[in-house]
Design goal:
Layout: H1 2-16, E1 34-38, E2 46-50, E3 63-65, H2 72-160
Antiparallel strand pairs: 1-2, 2-3
The structure holds zinc ion.
Amino acid sequence: MRGHGAITRERSSSISSSSVDAPTPHCYCGVTSLIRTSWRSDYPGRRFYGCSGYGTSRKCSFFQWYDPEPPARYSDVIRRLLETNECIRSENRELKKTRQELLDELRRLQQSVHETRAELEAAVAASTAMEDNMLASVVRTRRHGVVIIVLISVIVLLIFFPDRSR
Ligand SMILES: [Zn+2]
């Protein structure tokens, strides 16, 4: 705990002794410079004085740090944070890729289910038609059977009682 306090005091004292309290410098254009934030340096978020015409046709290459140089420890922390950030981005990309693959797979499965259902419906329709044919055939066969039995009966009657009508 005592160590933390020491670090905090050290940091705040190093900031107060920096150029923060110094008068705002003028850029090479002779205009009061503006404070901007650098995200590309070793210390992302470190502010600097730059030309007020930045982004327009009137600009110069004036550059002066506003924030003091942070302790080396800060650089390590930032580097680790950037690495962690890159890991998270990478994982996020992987997750998005996996999600897309799963969605594609789901779409393929849905298509497959759709096709299988259509095939099943066609098979059921064919089966039903076949069943109808079979039933019709059975009915025909029974009718034929009845006709044949009647004919046989008539023949048998004619054979065994040929003279009955006389
Ligand atoms: Zn300028």
